[in-house]
Each structure stands twice: as structure tokens, then as C-alpha cells.
Amino acid sequence: MKHNRRGVISLSLLIVLGLVAVAQSSDEGPAILISNFDDIDAAELPIEEVLVYWLESVFSANDDITVEYLDRYFPITDQSINVAVSAGQEAGGDIVLFGSYQDKGDRIDVNLISVITTDCPSASDFMQILFEDEEGFSVTDLHPGSPVPPQLSFYANMIVSDWMSEQNRQSEALLFLESSLLYADAVSEDYLPELYSLIANTYRIMGMYQAAIDGFSEALNLDPTDFNSLCLRAVCYDAIDSLDLAIDDLMIAVVLDPDNATTNAQLGAQLTQAGRQEEGQQYLDRSIELDPFCAMTFRDRSRSFYLLGQYEPALTYINMALAQEPESAQGHAFKGILLQFTGEQAEAIEELTIAIELETDLEVMAWSYYARASCYMDLGDYQIALADLTASADCSPSSYTVLYLTGVCHMQLGSNELAELYLSEYLSYPLELTPVDPWTTPDLPEKAEAFLEDLRR
Fold first, then answer.
1. Alpha helices, DSSP H only, in 182-225?
2. How far is CA 17 from CA 30, 205, 235, 378, 444, in A?
3. How many CB atoms lie within 10 A of CB 453?
4. Could you give the CA distance from residue 334 to residue 322 in angstroms, rounded to a whole number?
5. What is the pLDDT at residue 122?
6. Which of 257, 309, 311 is nearest to 286 (CA)?
7. Rounded distance, CA 424 to CA 223, Å?
8. Which of 63, 144, 180, 223 has the highest CB neighbour count under 10 A?
């Protein structure tokens, strides 16, 4: 069984982008439609009827999966995918299978294409499998009632898993991928790295990073040049703060594909996060050279300058990012932070206000309130700063420095009892330093202790 190159690209895109459907599906489905196949040699075999029977057998334990015949024919052309999507939607199907078959004597080669029709997927969202030679179907088995070929079971579970993943039903997608793995002996070993990578990526989407790392490692043991597995394992290493391991994977990936803008950007950002800013800048610059229209890379380039204390070039790059994505909450928030550090508090407040209005993630919004409060404190507007600090705590309690700043504001406003309460609570938590939080510095506990001594006198 050979996997068509276009199908490989399709699956790889799904892995890299981690796509999920915009609309959530119900717990039903999918409905699989088998269309008329192109009979290349006029063999007049009941391929459609047999496929309906085989797929019904494969999914006999899944009452919600239905398989039906679709009386349509789609020639294998570049336009067929979109036509099949429209026809499947009109017929109420979720997956359409079409293709061709060819008489090879005692074996029948089948070119099988599946396309998801639910939620209007892109034209790249399809898989194409070629069952040929020893993996073709026996002529004697091509009748309803015959045993299901294991290679067909492998593929069938793959297409349903793909659909489940598109509906953001990852735990179910994983079950079907594991079912495919049961039939791995029936297919070429060349296909197994991609299967393990798909399993691992499902774990990644579910937030089960160690299981994902194990899966990607399995794929890489079979194929050390599996580019997608390297990049995605790096994402998982980053998620568990194993930055050096993430960098190692991305270094290999960049060697495999030096002209990949996304990988260069990913490596540059990872090096920056690991404190290797100057080394990371060369990869960020290379990514911008390859793709000058990715706002995220410009933001990362800006951040690398910021971490080096070079605020003017950092502002230049964040402005370039905002020129491409003027509605980016992250862009406006980071520009606000930069403006505060260059002493332009009023302008910083304007940017942070825009960021708060645009942001939808409460955890991220908390940081913008926190940053704006710091600007107001720089201007001596402690009452307004208190309102922002309260809003930050309401959005997310993750930053203990908010307690410190709240205590300082109360102290400045003469509310000594409240100041003592907040500063004492701040000191009950461990100091957590991170490059994304410029307001939490190693001397804050010492400052809090000094303030408390003054308040208690």
C-alpha cells in the first residue's frame, strides 16, 4: 500500500498546524459515503458494494458510524476534492470516498481517496492511498461477505480518526489511531513513522506532553529524518520546560530544511527563551528573510532585542509586527511594555488599553492590566493602579507580584493595614522569576520586608 505524496502533505499540514474544526460536532457520526469508482480496465467489479460491506464490518461495533452508497462519480483531478466536498455535504455525509481500480490479473489495484466534508475543510484536507502489488485486493475476495483485508482496516481507522480530530474529539481520534496500529503489519513500514507521529500529535493536542514525546520518539526511531516529529517534539519539550532538548530537535530540523521559515522562527524563539538571544537572532532574521509577512516572527525579534536591553530596535520590530497585524493584542501589550521601559508611560497606557480591549484570553489579559497598573504607579496614580491590579487578580491569580504592587499602592495611599496585609501575603509565596515578567525582580522580597518594618514601627 503506497501513500500518495499529496496525501502525505495533507496529513503533515494537519500535524504542523494542529487544526481543529471551528464548529463542535455532536457525538454522532461520521457518515461515510462511497461513490462510483473509475473502472479503468472495464473489469466490471462490484468495488463500491464491497467497500460498503467491508467498512460496515470494520465499524460494526460503532453504532454512530454509518456507511452508504453515493451515486456520483468523481474523476481523479485537482478539482475533484472540492466537487466531492460539495456533493458529500448535499447528501448529508461527513466523509466521501472515491477513486479508481485496475485489473492486475489475480490482484486488483485500488487508488482510494477520502475527503472530509464536515465544516467545509480546505482542499488540502484529504488522504490518498494506493493499494497495489502485494497490497492490492485479491479478486476472489472482491464480493460482499468476504473477510476485510487488514490493509483496508488500517486505512479505514485512519480516515475516521482524521475526522474525529477535525471535530476536536481527540480522545476518540486516539482510539481509532490505536486501532490502525493493530493492522500495522499489513502495510509498508515506511508509513509507520507518520502513524506514530499522528498518535503523538493527538496526545500533544490533549496536553499529554510526555505521552506525545514518547510517540514522537517512536516515530523518530523509525525515521530520524521525520521533520514534523522533530518540530512537534520540540513543542512538547518546550511545554515541559526542557528547553535544551527542544533546541536540539529544532537544530536538526533546520539542517533538514534550512529554508523553512517556520522552523527558523521556532528555533530563534526557543533560543531566545533559553537566554541565548544573540544566537537566536540569526534564525529569526533568517525566518524574516524567508517570510517577511509573519507578524509573530517580528514580535519574537522584538522580544530578543528587549531581553538584550536594546529597546529602540525592539520598538522598531514591534511596530513592524503591528503594521501586519494591527489587531494583535499581544503586539499592543508588548509595545506598551517597551514604551514603559523607555519612559513613555502615557503612550504605554494607550497601547495596553488597546491590548485589554482586544484580548479574549483572561490569563493574558491579566498581564496587560498588571503592566498598565505599573505605568500608573510610575505616574503616581495609585488609586487607578489599584483598580487595574484588582482587575488583573480577577482575571488570573497566577502573578504574586500583583500582591506586592497592591501593597505598595495601599501604602502610598495611607491604608497601612491593607498594605501590611498584602505585603505579608506576598511574602508567603516563593519568588518566581521569568523573562516575560519584567516587574518581578530578585530584590522584591527584600523590599517587601523593608516596607513591612516601616509599617510596623
1. 192-205, 209-222
2. 23, 11, 12, 41, 40
3. 9
4. 10
5. 54
6. 257
7. 55
8. 180
Q: Residue 130: what residue type?
A: L
Whole-number Cα distances in Å, 418 to 121, 172, 179, 424: 55, 51, 60, 10
Instruction: Kindly state the average pLDDT of the residues 397-421.
Output: 94
User: Do residues 376 and 347 touch, judged by C-beta distance below 8 A?
Assistant: no
At 242 the three-state DSSP class reads coil
Q: How far is CA 77 from the centre of its chain?
A: 30
- In terms of pTM, does the model score above 0.90? no
Asked if residue 30 has a cis previous peptide bond (ω within 30° of 0), the answer is yes
End-to-end CA distance of the chain, in Å? Answer: 82
Q: How many residues does the chain have?
A: 457
Query: pLDDT tens across 281-295, in order?
Result: 999 999 999 999 999
How many whole angstroms separate alpha carbon 176 and alpha carbon 402? 46
- As given in the structure block, the three cell numbers for residue 215 are 510517540
pLDDT digits (tens, 9 = 90+) for 79-93: 888 899 999 999 999
